[in-house]
Predict the structure.
Amino acid sequence: KNQVEQSPQSLIILEGKNCTLQCNYTVSPFSNLRWYKQDTGRGPVSLTIMTFSENTKSNGRYTATLDADTKQSSLHITASQLSDSASYICVVKPRNRDDKIIFGKGTRLHILP
Amino acid sequence: DARVTQTPRHKVTEMGQEVTMRCQPILGHNTVFWYRQTMMQGLELLAYFRNRAPLDDSGMPKDRFSAEMPDATLATLKIQPSEPRDSAVYFCASGLEQLHQPQHFGDGTRLSIL
């Protein structure tokens, strides 16, 4: 069964610190893996999209990595800011068009001043 | 920036009532998705349209949910009759069919069924 598991469920860090969020998936083969940021009361916003052949993608202070062998992805946030407080959702799109996109349940990140 | 617009943003109604949620996708996008988000389940795909044609609605309870795209600027999701377990945030997203393009989400309709 295709699954996406994210860890930790929640994380609290001080402003200015770095952090890494994890995503493990069983979807295979897959077309792409995406990270979304969801602010409270808003819809998810795309941060990065990586195909199965890519192993890193950056968007400002956000860097996503992908290890297709171990079926793991991580999202690294550098020099965190208060505005980074949000949920971060890992999403995997299977290569088979008939299979649904699989969403992780997200990591809730809190940045403290 | 172009945005996906959803209305209403909030809806509170009694069990058994009909609920209609609307979505205006981004102009030029040819795919539209409806999702439901709850604390327990996270985001779940309910329905998916490409070029206004429904491709997948297997995520919806067929007896009470229906999704349509009467034209390229409007997608609707209806629940009739509504039940308390339908309480959730419903998101619409639109995108381009090309590979590796992101979906653009609206800010959702927060639905509470009493």
